[in-house]
Amino acid sequence: MAERGLHVTCSEVVELVTEYLERALPAEEATRFEEHLNFCDGCIVYVEQIRATVGTVGRLHEDDVPPHAKEQLMAAFRDWRRSP
Amino acid sequence: MTHARTQPSIDTRAADEAELLARLRDGDERAFEMLVDRHYGTMLAVARGYVKSRAVAEEVVQEAWLGVLKGLDRFEGRSSLRTWIIRIVANIAQTRGAREARSVPLSSLAPEGEEAAVDPDRFRGRDDAFPGHWRAYPSDWRALPEHALLGRETLALVMAAVSELPPAQRQVIVLRDISGLSSEEVCEALDISGGNQRVLLHRARSRVRSALEAHVDG
């Protein structure tokens, strides 16, 4: 990875945002990330877009159990219960 | 918060799981149906990270459930029931995927190559007074009406964007952001490092954000 300067740039913020949100950034880098957000409205908006994306993805549902699969599984459970 | 997912505390979950296990071992059909309803979608998402088609993924999940039944009496609760179940499906799917890989390229869980989260042209170049800074700021979605991000049309678009992701990225974003697994659970279930998991999640979220941006900003 290229050596980072004293300041984080916008193009670096968009690559660090997940590590930041996951609290996986080393303390010093997290501080520089936050300092950047203090003066950069574009990056504040970008981080909010990522949060909004996570929120929207979170509204999706997992796949339901297909009925035929459920029937097979219930039958397998009954067999299992009967087995010694 | 745009949505609230209530996560039961570890203690509640453990007590809940112990009770469920006791009922399962007693042969309680409703308890088993509950278990299937609760974990099927997550299992399918895991399986789809390793095998080519949804049909094969469904077969893998069925096989995994038979493995769950076989192991139920020996399950000791060292990991959560969910993690244990996901490990079973991941193992079966990996084996199946490796077999498929003789004819199909294998999707690897190790992130490959570089992939920019945002088109590099949107940042100022090296010769600029502010290299690496936005040429134009992204738009502020906080000013949008709620339906712009949560309406049916948007959700359909986001679902399509998620399903078009490379398998390993799709697997991680579904497990984290839809199934609600913690990063530790995902790493344990898929046997990947925290770093790999974050790279996959990062690429997945970045791609979905781009799709959403193209839709929202038109």
Q: Which of globular, elongated, flat, extended, rod-shaped describes the shape of chain A?
A: elongated
Flag low-confidence runs of chain A.
none
- The amount of helix of chain A comes to 55-70%
Largest sheet of chain B: none
Query: What's the architecture of the largest domain in chain B in CATH terms?
Result: Orthogonal Bundle
Number of helices of chain A: 4
Average pLDDT score of chain B: 88
Q: Indicate the radius of gyration of chain B in whole angstroms.
A: 20 Å
How many angstroms does the end-to-end distance of chain B come to?
25 Å
* N-end to C-end Cα span of chain A: 59 Å
What percent of residues of chain B are in strands? under 5%
Structural class of chain B: mainly alpha
Write a structural description.
The complex is a heterodimer of chains A (84) and B (218). By secondary structure, chain A is mainly alpha-helical. Chain A has a single domain, classed as Arc Repressor Mutant, subunit A (Orthogonal Bundle). Chain A has helices at residues 10-21, 27-39, 41-57, 67-82. The longest helix of chain A has 17 residues, at 41-57. Chain B is an all-alpha fold. Chain B has helices spanning 10-25, 29-48, 54-71, 81-100, 146-150, 152-163, 167-178, 183-190, 194-216. Helix content of chain B is 61%, strand content 0%. Chains A and B meet through helix 1, helix 3 and helix 4 of A and helix 2, helix 3, helix 6, helix 7 and helix 9 of B.
